[in-house]
Amino acid sequence: MSTQPLIRSKQTEKSINGISTQVVCTEFSNYIFIVLTQYGKIGTLVSVTPDSRSGDISTSMFTTKVLLGKEEALTHVCAKNLATFVSQEAGNRPVLLGLALKDSSIEAIKAMKDNSANWL
User: Fold this and answer.
1) What residues contact residue 62 under an 8 Å CB cut-off, 6+ apart?
2) Which of 24, 26, 69, 79 would disulfide-bridge 46, Cβ 3.0–4.6 Å?
3) pLDDT tens, 48-79?
C-alpha cells in the first residue's frame, strides 16, 4: 500500500519568449501555493481568493490582494489571469501566488496561462 505525501508539490520549467520560467505549485488542504519566477525568487506575494458570493464555479469572481511587494494594477491582472484556472481545478480553493517576472507582456502571460494546466 503506497502512501501519498501530506503535501503534493510539482515543479516545472519552460522557456517563455526566450526567458527561462520556473513554476512550483504546492497543494495544501486549504490553499494552493504557486511560485512563478523568471528571477529564481518568490517576488511579489499575492492572495487570489474566489468571491464567496459566486456559487457557480464556472463563473467565479476572484479578489486579489498584494501581501508583500509592490502594489501595481498589472500585478492584480497577472495574478487573476494566472491563478483562476488553478483555483477552479482545485475545487475553487484560494491561491497564494509569488510572481517574479521579467516579461509581463500580454503574450507572455497568455503563454504562462496556457501552460497552467500542467501546474497541478
Assistant:
1) 48, 49, 50, 51, 80, 83, 84, 87
2) 79
3) 998 866 555 556 688 999 999 999 999 999 99
